[in-house]
């Protein structure tokens, strides 16, 4: 199974309610997630389902990913992905997917970094995983044990040059 773990895009500093859970993506955050969605779309991975934290910024991130990836109704809020919870606790939701499927999971830092380190089976790696807003890591891991995974890529929006999205032939020849 391929798991793409993503940190939500850059968010506004405050929400109109004053609650952290209600903070929305900034315009840069939206732009960055569109870039990351296009990157995933152009990759060899085909996302079949998206899970996200119940916070506004992660829902907005998941919605942008879904739009870029052409996923209509296969997104689901997951309380285990909220800040302060343990992301690994959501594995029961994906254990019945096949090893050939790709699942996208949107959460927060530092939980998402701990989750990635758990899947790779190296908790000492957590501080070395720089999950800036919008960063994704793709991991190939067997659903039978959800451990010992191999990193396929780790990339942030700042690593993507905008010109790779300007060639329309890439999109036509890729799909």
Percent helix, as a range, is: 25-40%
* Helical/strand content category: alpha/beta
Tell me the name of the CATH class.
Answer: Alpha Beta
What is the average per-residue confidence, as pLDDT, rounded to a whole number?
Answer: 91
Biggest sheet architecture: 6 strands, mixed
- Annotation field: number of helices: 4
Under CATH, the topology is which? Rossmann fold
How much of the sequence is in beta strands?
A: 15-25%
From the spread of the alpha carbons, the general shape counts as globular
Let me know the number of strands.
Answer: 6
Neighbour order of strands in the largest sheet: 3-2-4-1-5-6
Rounded to the nearest angstrom, the distance between the terminal CA atoms is: 21 Å
Uncertain spans: 170-175
Radius of gyration: 15 Å
Number of structurally distinct domains: 1
The CATH level-2 architecture is identified as 3-Layer(aba) Sandwich
CATH H-level superfamily title: Phosphoglycerate mutase-like
| SSE order | EHEHEEHEEH
Description:
It is a single chain. The protein has a six-stranded mixed beta sheet with strand order 3-2-4-1-5-6, with helices on both faces. The chain contains four helices and six strands, in the order βαβαββαββα. Helix 1 (27-42) packs parallel to helix 2 (56-69). The relative contact order is 0.22. Mean pLDDT is 91; it is low at 170-175. The chain is α/β, with parallel strands linked by helices and 175 residues long. The protein has one domain (2-10, 24-142): Phosphoglycerate mutase-like (Rossmann fold, 3-Layer(aba) Sandwich).
